[in-house]
Amino acid sequence: MRIYPVLVAALALTAGCKESGGPVTGRRTTASSRGEIELQGAGATFPYPLYSKWIAEYQKIEPQVRINYQSIGSGGGIRQFTEGTVDFGATDGPMDDAQVQAVPGGVLHVPTALGAVVLTYNVPGLPAAPLHLDGPAIADIFLGRIARWNDPRLAALNPGTALPATDIIVVHRSDGSGTSFIFTDFLSRVSAEWAAKVGHATAVNWPIGLGGKGNEGVTQQVKQTPGAIGYVELLYALSNQLPFASVKNAAGRFVAPSLRTVTAAAASATFGPDTDFRVSIANAPGADAYPIASFTWLLVHPTPADTAKGRKLRDFLRWMVGPDAQRMAADLNYAPLPVSLIETIQRRIGG
Question: How far is the C-alpha of 33 from the C-alpha of 161, rounded, in Å?
Fold first, then answer.
């Protein structure tokens, strides 16, 4: 795969947009007659609250830069970026080599923050303490092999917890999703059967379960369905006051998702000077690493045709990975980028 030496482009967003799989409305524009620059973007739902905050704050600094971001899911963001209907995309699952090669002008993945995918559940009668789950058990739940909450394997993982004889109702994403990519990437690393039969992608053929559109849709399905289990980004579980499991990591420890444990998962990632930043941190090594974690990326063109737009995109990107914006990420329960990675991003984008 070709590696591009310098990035002069990046990202953006909006507020109050609805999730949609359709094309972004409006044309890609450059500078208006009033000197404004308009940027269109679309993609992942997971970073939408953070991107909305960043857009609002950045436009106080640069009011001439008008940014619109539609939260349509990672699959939609990749598709629209590839088709050229947006200036940038956003995804929680990196594009594969074939997808990258299909983008006219090339693409660079720029990490903006870190997040966790959590197993959230609705099991009446369970104590407040979080469930303990391991990768093989999670895979077998989503394969339909473990069908009741009092299954002996779940009981062995949760000694002393009275698990009810309730049917397990699996809930998964119905749309193309970076959240699904992160989750199925983890399952493929801990279950050979899952890797062979289902695999990992933004959209897979789920063996069983109910579908929900977006993190919001899965969250609502779980809230409304006794016995349900689903996977969502940590922020959605926290904001809806849903319980979530501690998951056994590669070091054999049960770890709860948090800013600290997600950052610990990123500690093993290394990036060379010409990196395109595509890396998985699923089931990462480290005693404190939460195993279902990932970067979230912006998809940008290395060399925008419009130099004025490229300059503004680059400036916005440098601000996003800077200290003020990364502190906002932590305030919204997104793990900030490691300092060493920020330095690498700054070198890559130049300027």
Answer: 66
* pLDDT tens-digit map of 252-266: 999 999 999 999 999
Q: Which two tokens stand for residue 137?
A: 């058990």
How many angstroms separate the CA atoms of 61 and 59, rounded?
A: 5
- Other CB atoms within 10 Å distance of the CB of residue 186: 26
Q: Which residues pair with 302 in a beta bridge?
A: none
The rounded distance, in Å, linking the Cα atoms of 135 and 142 is: 11
CA distances from 188 to 138, 180, 247 (A): 11, 12, 15
Opening angle at CA 58, ends 336 and 10, nearest 5: 70
Give the ranges where the chain is alpha helix by DSSP (H): 48-61, 74-83, 97-101, 135-143, 152-157, 178-190, 192-197, 214-224, 234-239, 259-266, 307-320, 323-331, 339-349
Per DSSP, the residues of 263-302 read HHHHTT----TT-------TT-SSTT--SSEEEEEEEE-S
| Token representation of residue 126 | 């369970």
Handedness of CA 12, 17, 19, 21 (dihedral sign): negative
Is 232 in contact with 183 (CB distance < 8 Å)?
no
Condensed to tens digits (0 to 9), the pLDDT of residues 142-192 reads 999 999 999 999 999 999 999 999 999 999 999 888 899 999 999 999 999
Q: Spell 52-75 as b/e; 16+ CB within 10 A means b.
A: bbbbeebeeeeeebbbbbbbbbbb
Put simply, whether the predicted model's pTM sits higher than 0.85 gets the answer no
Q: What are the angstrom distances between the C-alpha of 321 and each of 9, 37, 124, 329? A: 14, 21, 42, 10
Distances (CA, A) of 54 to 49, 112, 258: 9, 11, 21
Measured CA to CA, the distance from residue 290 to residue 96 in angstroms comes to 24
Question: 230, 228, 233: which is closest to 206 by C-alpha?
Answer: 230
